[in-house]
Hints:
With 133 residues, the chain is an alpha+beta fold. The chain has helices at residues 14-30, 50-61, 129-132, and strands spanning 2-7, 34-39, 65-66, 80-85, 87-95, 104-112. It has one domain: Deoxyribonuclease I, Chain A (4-Layer Sandwich).
Amino acid sequence: ILCVTVYRLPKQSAIFIQEFSEFLSILHNSFERIILAGDFNLHIDNPSDPFSKEFLNILSYMDFSQHVTQPTHSRGHTLDLVITYGLSTSVSSVIDLAVSDHYCVFFSITSFIQLEPSVRTVRKRHLTPEVAA
C-alpha cells in the first residue's frame, strides 16, 4: 500500500488540477493500492464549485474513491480528504479535537479490492536440436 499525505495551499490554481491528474496517473500505473490523505483545501462539499467538480471527476475517471462526507473544517466545509484506490475504506468519524481549525478524520481499511490481473501473453516454441545449437 502506498500512503501519500497531501497539503495544498488554499489559493486555487488551475494548474493544480492538471498536475494532480498527472500525479494520479503515475500512481495509478505504478501501484495497486493507494491512500492519499490530507488537506486539499477544496470545498468538496460544494457540488456547484467547478474546481471541486473537476477534481471529483478526475478521481472518478481514474477509479479513485473519496470517502469523507462530513465537514472537516470549523467553517463547515469538507477540505480534508481520504482518497483510495484498490482499497475498501470506511471513515468512522470526524472529530474536532480543538487543536486546529481542521478536524481529525478517523478511517480504517475494511478490505482489499480484488483487482483484475493484468493480461500476459506467453508464447511457447519447440526448438529442434539444430535450431538450439
